[in-house]
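SAMPLE LOG
Freezer: B-3
Tube label: C17
Construct: single chain, 190 aa
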Amino acid sequence: MTSSPPVRAIRSPDEIRATIEVFTDLEWHRVRKAAEYWARAHGADADDVMQDALERAVDGSRQCPADISIFAFLSGAMRSISGDERKARTRRAEIHLVAEDGSLVVDPMDDRPNAAEAAQSREAAEGIKQAVLGLFEDDLAAQTIVEGDMDGIEGEELRDLTGLDAKAFASKRRLVRRRIDRTYPKGWKS
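STRUCTURE (predicted):
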């Protein structure tokens, strides 16, 4: 007989709202910086990303585990929201240049992958990303570091997002590297 995983305690929307209402100026500054970071990383608008994350937090559509800080929860929500916006923007129509008389001037060669190839590529990349992030389901700071690395974010900016001091951040980086190396000693094999 298999045992089911333990149920994770979740903060109520009222509890989240009460915590957000008493944020200090420093805490709001950190939330704003996280919004700017994730918006820049995914080409979204920081105000929209922050507003969406706050709305979803207090209306209960996003659940915050009780063992995660509200800041880390909001940062993760903003990361997800801005990433979703980036994906939506990549779906664009084919472009043709047409003269005033309606004749086709240029039919540019479309070197983008066709829909099936693009979907397959995104699916493969998402599979790899989820597999690696899945190694850190128990650790939001490590997940943030891994996703930040995947998005090309480095240094102080990434450390600020995790909320860790320099020593804890270096330790968490070592944990990430060791866990990935232990799981994939010869690199990713599809």
